[in-house]
Amino acid sequence: MKTDKAIEAIGDNHVSTSATTPLRKDAFILTDKEKIASIREDIKHIMETLGLDLTDDSLKGTPQRVAKMFVNEIFSGLHPERKPDASTFSNNYKYGEMLVEKNITLYSTCEHHLLPIVGRAHVAYISNGTVVGLSKMNRIVDYYAKRPQVQERLTMQIVQDLQIVLGTKDVACVIDAKHLCVNSRGIRDIESSTVTSEFGGKFKENAVRREFLDYIKLDTTF
Ligand SMILES: Nc1nc2c(ncn2[C@@H]2O[C@H](COP(=O)(O)OP(=O)(O)OP(=O)(O)O)[C@@H](O)[C@H]2O)c(=O)[nH]1
Ligand SMILES: [Zn+2]
């Protein structure tokens, strides 16, 4: 994929918006294999600087494991080729009410500390003729979550993507998540979680927004 095209695609909105993940111009020059090899050396350097003996049986595979995990798993959503194919259907059954996909499991990574964000996303839309497969909403959440993120941007990216897929502004997302950078270090507040929301189109109307929030009744037991 040509670099410019790929950078455009990573915003996944075909135009760059305030919610586009900031990427370097040369973000796609290296192959995944080359990225893994390079990150492996960086992790090795960090561990050795910390004083760890990488000849130890348990530690010696860690740089390669971490590098693979970064590229293929927790940051795999940085590559537009990994974007899920969101198959749509026409709304033949003329369902005209809100559809809510709630309690979508969310694992992401805080871009300030590279620590986990763990929580739930709730996504809703009102069809204007197009319907998306249910699992595709979970997949879109997962794709954008697999990047270094701030929760605000993640919430907006999910909504903006689904607005394009569905051809309507009437899309909303609420995320309730725990940031381990807040829970496990720093202020070490294990109880607090962060709620973000983005309401597009009809979801800006009080009654519609209320209906969505009533369906999801924020459950904070994660
Ligand atoms: N707005 C926003 N802030 C976040 C998110 N994830 C982490 N943060 C915050 O980013 C901030 C970074 O602040 P800094 O002062 O640079 O970092 P720090 O010294 O490690 O701060 P403490 O976490 O307070 O110890 C912290 O307040 C984090 O809680 C997020 O998704 N959205
Ligand atoms: Zn953080």
TrEMBL record:
Gene3D superfamilies: 1.10.286.10, 3.30.1130.10. Residues 39-216 form the GTP cyclohydrolase I domain. It catalyses: GTP + H2O = 7,8-dihydroneopterin 3'-triphosphate + formate + H(+). PROSITE patterns: GTP_CYCLOHYDROL_1_1 (PS00859), GTP_CYCLOHYDROL_1_2 (PS00860). Pathway: Cofactor biosynthesis; 7,8-dihydroneopterin triphosphate biosynthesis; 7,8-dihydroneopterin triphosphate from GTP: step 1/1. It is an enzyme of class 3 (hydrolase). Its EC number is 3.5.4.16. Zn(2+) binds at C110, H113, C181. Keywords: GTP-binding, Hydrolase, Metal-binding, Nucleotide-binding, One-carbon metabolism, Zinc. InterPro entries: GTP-CH-I_C/QueF, GTP-CH-I_N, GTP_CycHdrlase_I, GTP_CycHdrlase_I_CS, GTP_CycHdrlase_I_dom. The keyword Zinc applies. PANTHER family: GTP CYCLOHYDROLASE 1, GTP CYCLOHYDROLASE I. Belongs to the GTP cyclohydrolase I family. Homopolymer. This is GTP cyclohydrolase 1. It comes from Aquimarina addita. The lineage of its organism: Bacteria, Pseudomonadati, Bacteroidota, Flavobacteriia, Flavobacteriales.
